[in-house]
Amino acid sequence: MARLENADLGLSESSIVKLRSAGILTVYDFMSLTCEELVKKTDMLYELVDTLQKTIVTKFGGNIEHYLDVYSQERKDVISTGLSCLDNLLDGGFHCRQIYEICGSSSAGKSQLCHWFAMHATLNDLSQVHYVDASRQFFASRIQMILDMRKASVTDFAKVMSAIKVHQVHRIHDLVSLFHELTTTWIESESSSNKKLIIIDSLSLLCAIVPSTELTQILCSFASICRYLANRCRVAVVVINRVRAEQRDSMLTDKSSGKSVPLNFQPSLGKYWQGVPNVRLLIDPLERERREIRVWKSTLLENGKCCFVDFNDEGILPK
Amino acid sequence: MDDEDDNVNVILRDEGSKANDRRKPELVETYVQLLSRLIQRPPVVDLDSILFFNELDNKDVIEVKGSVSSGVPSLLVQIVTKSILPSKYNGLDMDVFYINTENQFQISAVFEAALNEMREFEGHSKLDEEVKSALTKLKMIHCYNYYQFLVTINNLQDILIENKKIGLIIIDSISAYYWQQRETELSYDSFVLKLLKNVQKSSSEFKILTLYTKPIDFVSKNKSSNAYELRNLLSYDISLVRDEKSNELNCSVRYKNKIKTLKYEITKTKLKWLINNS
């Protein structure tokens, strides 16, 4: 919590000394006492103490928002996934101010989906897609291939590639710093009023080297900045995560392929993270190139509802 | 008390009321106590008679905990909608102060739910303006870190004085920043109790119903005196659970020593109570 002398409250040196000698060091120490208690403890003027508390609330506390504006924006700020069936599942597409998580086992097609979302969003005139490539799975050539198969023009390819900003990030701390940077830039440049998409492929990979004792604390900080960015800057955040078998002994061997398939999946990253995304989708490989995408957890969408898509050279097609 | 203290938020009463009584006046009521007595907060008794089976009082504290996908946000949407709707639509016509720490609440869901409720009374006539007017009763603050949350709670008294129609405070969720303050090594229950006491400084004074949410597993393993104190502070303890195998939804409501269980469904705009097994 900000110390009073660093909080830019216009406090004189003598006031800071008085407060310090009364054991009031931080903004929160100051706010946890009533005006009367502060006057008694520090001998400061009642009016000064009252004004300071009001300044602190404006500067550090939450502000009541006007919800009519928020409501009309909520309905407008939707980014299509480029798949009509998935858009139907998600009530129109990715909604800004929301965190989406796409879970799936290895080779389920999570990164392919990310390429598709990024490409489609920019083709639909979304000016900014930020692609956090932690898995080093982003290939511009894959996007070019899809666009070539669809006979898109060079202009379209240029438009797509110039709008997708790829960030090579290897540590969760770097991701937190990147989010802080983006928030500051967007708020200062007033581009917080345009809707945006951020894709993180993948969060589980970024957290793989974090000691388990520190994971929840780091994820808690990441969740905070993620929510702030999503709300303040009109961003939809898509996070990729792996799944893990709930119990080691609950594996089933698929006779046709000989592969072991977990019976009960759980998203990785632990219990704390389970409650963070607003919507969790599960992508499940079926026969050949077909995938099932299912609503796994959502506050408002119908859980368990699913759609089917086919992956091929042309990209992803709804079935 | 010194005479110059007269201007410091106190109401003084001349005990004797005789013209020449020179005894020192006695402090009987603070400024906040006076305001809390004068401001009539809207009654909450009709919020949900099935869920709150032993009636609700304005000073009650409600804990709502749920597993993932058990419908906690839907229950909150239902409670907010009922609270803000005008009485002609069977609502409580009061303001709700919502501290949103986990960003799971969507205003569009309240809009849909309110529209749905109104249509039961008015058919399909144009109700958008009435819904929008009801939405202005929802006062929401987003918090993004622990200290912002603490400052907001400490400012609650001023918020409640300025907004006289607030009858319900919702904190969704109270546990959001537990992991940001771990250096103090508070147990889960002690953390909740500490924050709740802070909220209650204002909410109980103003007789305002308080509801908070937390994950179902956010409970201390070792039962300390704080755990018992927290339990005694609660009027209603509500648990929403989805059975992962059968997908069945069960709600357990504890009021003092009475427990009621309910089965429910999650519809697009609310929780629908199915059976009352009490």
From TrEMBL, chain A:
The keyword Metal-binding does not apply. It is found in: Nucleus. This is RecA family profile 1 domain-containing protein. It comes from the Eukaryota. Residues 75-243 form the RecA family profile domain. Keywords: ATP-binding, Nucleotide-binding, Nucleus. GO terms for cellular component: nucleus. SUPFAM superfamilies: P-loop containing nucleoside triphosphate hydrolases (SSF52540). GO terms for biological process: DNA repair. GO terms for molecular function: ATP binding. The keyword Metal-binding does not apply. PANTHER family: DNA REPAIR PROTEIN RAD51 HOMOLOG 4 (PTHR46457:SF1). PROSITE patterns: RECA_2. Its main location: nucleus.
UniProtKB/TrEMBL annotation, chain B:
InterPro entries: P-loop_NTPase, Rad51_C, XRCC2. Gene3D superfamilies: P-loop containing nucleotide triphosphate hydrolases (3.40.50.300). Pfam families: Rad51. This is Rad51-like C-terminal domain-containing protein. The lineage of its organism: Eukaryota, Metazoa, Ecdysozoa, Arthropoda, Hexapoda. It comes from the Eukaryota. Residues 47-214 form the Rad51-like C-terminal domain.
